[in-house]
Amino acid sequence: MKGLMQEHELLISSVIRHAAENHGDREVVTRESDGRITRSCYAQVEQRARQLAAALVGLGIRPGDRVATLAMNSYRHLECYYGISGMGAVLHTVNPRLFAEQISYIINHGQSRALLLDPCFLPLVESIAPRLKKIEHLIVLTESTLMPPAGGRPMLCYEQLLDAAPGSYQWPSFDERSAASLCYTSGTTGQPKGVLYSHRSTLLHALVSLQADCFGLRSVDAVLPIVPMFHVHAWSMPYGCAMAGAKMVLPGNHVDAPSLVELIQSEQVTMALGVPTVWSMLVNHLRDSGQSLPSLQRAVVGGAALPPAIRDALEQCSGARVIHAWGMTETSPTGAVATTTANLEQLSADERRAELLKQGRPPWGVELKITNPEGEPLPSDGISSGQLWIRGPWIARGYFRRGRERVLDEDGWFPTGDVASRDAYGFIKISDRTKDVIKSGGEWISSIDIEHIATAHPQVRFAAAVAADHPKWGERPLLIVVRADGSALGAEELLEYMRPRMARWWLPDAVVFVSELPLTATGKVLKTSLRAAYRDYFLTAPGQPTGNR
Ligand code: AMP
Fold first, then answer.
1. R_g of the chain computed on alpha carbons
2. Which atom of ligand 1 is nearest the CA belonging to 336?
3. Does 410 qualify as catalytic in the annotation?
4. Is 430 helix (H, G, I), strand (E, B) or coil?
5. Is 506 part of the annotated catalytic residue set?
6. Mean pLDDT of 220-233
7. Which numbered atom of ligand 1 lies nearest the CA of 359?
8. Which of 434, 439, 472, 540 is catalytic?
9. Interior/surface letters 335-362, b for 16+ CB within 10 angstroms, e for the rest
């Protein structure tokens, strides 16, 4: 017997329609590339998104066609989110921080027919334009007076397109399982792979991100996604904020620490989201400039493990509750969030804080399991660690245009490639990417744990532990460190600090000081390049200690 409830497809257009009707005057604030602040609101975003949809229809874009964006966080990019998916086309967000070859590969592989770009990416697009065979329309996200002079490939002006489009366009209805957006993995090894989200997966995921035990979004919030809208939907904030009616604060390409701090203060931001390297940059700036962030209530940290030192610094300079979350491009991204539970409330404050540094528990909708190499489930004892698997309605089941490649196991589980343990409270702890684990004398050493202990030293700004080949132990940890400004910290001093805080055989065999660490296009430390550069360190560097075991 079927239920007697109304049938409505879960469509992305319904989110912006809701926001326009019920939170129409709630602001969407953008810092433009010239530093000006522009104030839009959900009513305007919805109106203009419908005009964009009408304009795209006029250009011949059909449902299912991919339409790419190469843009920072701004109200115009938000309009693209709703206009493109809302009309039934597929929003293909492209990460401009990738290499030019990767960008052209991603746009070509996604077969996008139009590309909307911020003016700051014009030189990049001009350099790859001859390779973008499928792109029929280049649309610059700007007004007519700021359009580049004609020459090269013809470009359309976004504001002129919108001005010419009818305002009467109505959102169509279609199957909620239709593709809504496409985002490629960062592809640190091999070619990037396309994750194709549906309207249904996007809305279910966004709904869950609103929950009090996830990010707890409310209409009174002012939310600053420092995480970019070009990668995994800025962790769903463009949808979640509109659902909740929260004010959005979008930094454009001003993502340096002073600009972000100023924006948080002037717009009274209550929640901000970023990767650890960005938060680290922010807290260092706050410390150096003696400023604080009194309005900030929640700081969401994800994309890489949260170092305790960053959590402590964030709490000190803002009073914000720090929420640690785990996820991947393939998981939309939210797969686990560390927020307190009734059981955790029974613990001492220190025990609870230690627990909340882990990656947390799955929200409703996703299931997690951890297995040994034979595929057998491991006990939730907080010690046994193995491959983490995930499944649920917003987890990928395959990649775009990869033929019959099989991604899931026979029970529908997606292999994350992360190594994790789970404890009696149900909290998972990620110890590494499978590829980053340091295998020393047949046992595994967690690079993340080593890094957290090193970064707790006040004179360490960033630290990365990588496996280097070792004649006796197979691999040994090598620590690569960026010192704090003005520090003359030495290797022995740092190792002495770390020695009592970790198992003897985990202690890195050597420390290398560098001026900066290579970062991925999403702001994470690029371990693959460090591993390649230092693979032979213990085989070639003279006078190295022979290991701490
Ligand atoms: P991406 O698909 O580029 O967003 O990267 C996903 C990967 O980032 C995951 O598989 C993890 O290895 C890593 N990651 C994301 N969040 C966390 C976290 N909170 N702690 C540790 N690693 C994380």
1. 24
2. 19
3. no
4. strand
5. no
6. 97
7. 19
8. 439
9. bbbbbebeebeeeeeeebbebbbbbbbb
- The CA distance from 283 to 461, in Å, is 11
Task: Give the active site residue among 79, 176, 330, 475.
Answer: 330
Place of tokens 């874009």: 61
The string of pLDDT tens digits covering residues 180-197 is 999 999 766 678 999 999
pLDDT class for 528, splitting at 50, 70, 90? very high
Report pLDDT digits (tens) over 305-321: 999 999 999 999 998 99
Q: Considering only CA atoms, which residue is closest to atom 16 of ligand 1?
A: 303
Count of beta carbons in the 10 Å neighbourhood of residue 405: 9
Ligand 1: residue of 326, 329, 366, 394 to mutate (most ligand atoms within 8 A of CB) is 326
pLDDT tens-digit map of 320-333: 999 999 999 999 99
Interval between CA 326 and ligand 1 midpoint (Å):
6
Q: Spell out the residues 6+ positions from residue 13 whose beta carbon is closer than 8 angstroms to its own.
A: 82, 85, 86, 171, 172
Sheet holding 414-422, edge to edge: 367-371, 386-391, 414-422, 428-433
Contacts of 539 (CB under 8 A, 6+ apart): 469, 470, 471
Which residue, judged by its Cα, is nearest atom 22 of ligand 1?
A: 304
pLDDT tens digits, residue range 372-385? 999 999 999 999 99
User: What does the pLDDT read at residue 188?
Assistant: 66
Kindly give the distance from the C-alpha atom of residue 339 to the centroid of ligand 1, in angstroms, as a whole number.
18
Q: Give yes or no: 330 in active site.
A: yes
